[in-house]
Amino acid sequence: MGNCSQGCKDYFSRQKNTNIRLTLPVVCFVWQIAMIILFGVFIRYDKESNAHWVETKAHDNITSDIENDFYFRYPSFQDVHVMIFVGFGFLMTFLKRYSFGAVGFNFLIASFGLQWALLMQGWFHSLDPQTGKIFIGVESLINADFCVAGCLIAYGAVLGKVSPVQLLVMTLFGVTLFAVEEYIILNLLHARDAGGSMVIHTFGGYYGLAISRVLYRPNLHQSKRMQGSVYHSDTFAMIGTLFLWMFWPSFNSAITDHGDGQHRAVINTYLCLASTVLTTVAISSLSQKTGKLDMVHIQNSTLAGGVALGTAAEFMISPYGALIVGFFCGIISTMGYIFISPFLEKTLKIQDTCGIHNLHAMPGVIGGIVGAITAAAASESVYGKQGLINTFDFTGDFKDRTVLTQGGYQAAGMCVSIVFGVVGGAIVGSILKLPIWGDPADENCFDDEVYWEVREPSVMFCSYPNRSESNFSVEHCES
């Protein structure tokens, strides 16, 4: 028994081999070929993107192409797509030597993830029982991007510590788990979550944190020299923040009902985000003896309001209610970076590179709570009879559901997303822990040179004991 235990220990602690010349191309080629085959078998255009649209218009007495869902949804899709590939990618470029990995691997896993998401979400939500086909349109593309967002959130927790092969495996399982929990929350529980506070952010946050816990590196301090940011890397990350901040109203309103629901979701998110910025700046300044601002807080916590209002974005939370949610989210998220992140790493051994607990997991839970309370407090006097039915989709099997019951199911949906994130992340983390994926050694984490051709010579990173000093010497720099 002792020999077996020692053998396992030696196997998992053997020297890292980061040569992925065979494994990465094989995974990319095999999985992309699999996507081609599966798309050929299952995926078809829906009636609004099919060439038979002309006949559909005549049959349904549609007089203009402007009634095609494309013209309603594409502007929102465009904004969400930019958030996924530009916003998330650049937000993670804050590390001084991991910009290629942040943007490039974000590009890779999003490109694979959206294909797999169209299949997984199609099998659960839109599989035609008569033909056995999945019919996709522009709303399907938005939902696939939402699914990918959960995996990109999880990537933030393990940024710089995993190989691209591990990221693809993490995305494969992440999309699968997402599709199942989304089906349970939105279809079986019939919870409302237009902006994904529960389905996307809570799940993605705890999924990434659980994986990071399983992949805990006790000697990660050997890469401490690479963990910080420099002036230009923080500036690039701020570009990601601004793209996300500007387009978040589109994210929260993209799949809401046309008309008042979508309009209300934009207004609520717009106001909530603005409120979050002021309280983030306030707490960031208060946290420093000199009153200076920390760029980490400004890059991340200013977005927490958009996360927290995702569930209740289309509800009649009122403009001042949206401001209140943003007010408290800026405080809680910033305090998370100051106090909770060090606690998670020191006590719970969760090494959260990007602080996704403070930007996604915790605000996601707040969003679930806000959504449950707002749903339970809804009334005909505020929404109107038909407005209440439209907002909470009290039709069909759910036509007799009360608002109090809806509030309970909203809370249950939040619990489902946490369970799927934690349990699923623990299982996937155990798979990723196998020493076959080409992950970097502890001393080589957060460094692009492990997986990328970095053509310029090694850059010298200069840190000033006091940024106001005009004179510096080479002692202040490290290569």
Automatic annotation (TrEMBL):
GO molecular function: ammonium channel activity
Keywords: Ammonia transport, Cell membrane, Glycoprotein, Membrane, Transmembrane, Transmembrane helix, Transport
Transmembrane annotation, as ranges: 22-43, 77-95, 102-122, 134-155, 167-186, 198-216, 228-247, 267-286, 298-317, 323-344, 356-378, 411-432
Residue intervals of the Ammonium transporter AmtB-like domain: 68-450
Main subcellular location of this protein, as a coarse class: membrane
Topology in the lipid bilayer: Multi-pass membrane protein
Name of the protein described by the UniProt record: Ammonium transporter AmtB-like domain-containing protein
Organism: Oncorhynchus mykiss (Rainbow trout)
